Amino acid sequence: MASGGDPAHIKTIIMSLKNTKTTLLLLLLMAGMTGGLSSCEKAPLPGDYGSSELKVYLADAPGDYRALWLDVENIMVNVSNDTSGDSGWIDVPLTRKGRYNLLDFGNGKDTLVARANLPGGTLTQIRLILGNHNILVLKNGATIPLKLPSAQQTGIKLNVNAGLSPTTPYSMVLDFDVARSITVEGHSGTHIFKPVIRAYARATVGAVKGVVLPDSAAAYVMAVLGKDTTSVVPDSAGSFIFAGVHGGNYKLVFAADSTTGFKNDTLHNIQVTEGGSTRLDTVWLTATKGSPLK
Length: 294
Known about the structure:
This protein is mostly beta strands. It has helices spanning 7-41, 178-181; strands at 51-61, 67-80, 87-91, 98-101, 110-119, 121-130, 134-137, 143-146, 156-164, 170-177, 182-184, 191-193, 197-201, 206-213, 220-225, 228-232, 239-245, 248-255, 265-272, 277-279, 283-284. Strands 2, 3, 4, 6, 7, 8 and 9 form a seven-stranded antiparallel β-sheet that branches. A hairpin with a 6-residue loop joins strand 11 (182-184) and strand 12. The radius of gyration is 32 Å and the shape is globular.
């Protein structure tokens, strides 16, 4: 006849089943936690960020020279991604390697020098690497070889800190200030080349345009915002443009050549908005007192 069995044996079986159930629950819970942690800590793949097309342009704020031939060898950018922590220098292929006459790209003109597709992230720096064949041509036609300072022979680093969003194209401009990039030593007459360059994203800056007359004043124009000064030399018609200036309240200084007999002039409170263009009325410089031009 069948019996209920040994009570001690039945108790052992029940406890074993309970322990097995508890173990299964723990295993399932741990598996869920592990999966959750794995999904949180999973490193993103490079393709997760997409890519952005970057175009690099060369522009110039003109100086009083016939030409300044810049020997462009390479352009590199440093792109970091806060999520992955990756960063490093990336070559941006040049459209043409060699010399460019900066004075061809003044008053709003520029030229495309490099382009590439870059991973999304933050564009922190641009490095412009120049060769050894940079040449200045004076008004009288004399040519002067220019050497870079030793600190810049491995490349001129420019801080940018621009965010690169996937599939969004970006245009960066390297704007040389030729007038401030060349200095002349008083005693020796030696021309010193220390490139002064601004790097900016075209979509995040504004512009100021105008005309200064008469052309016989041979004036140049300076845009001053706080401690930042940018200068341009108008063309033969007196037209000038400051392209790529940040928004703010500017002072414009019109400085006539001291040998022409004209007074300098200044405009205050010139408002510039990012992405906008400010057009000025024509500025007429007047002759100095006692000048035969009066």
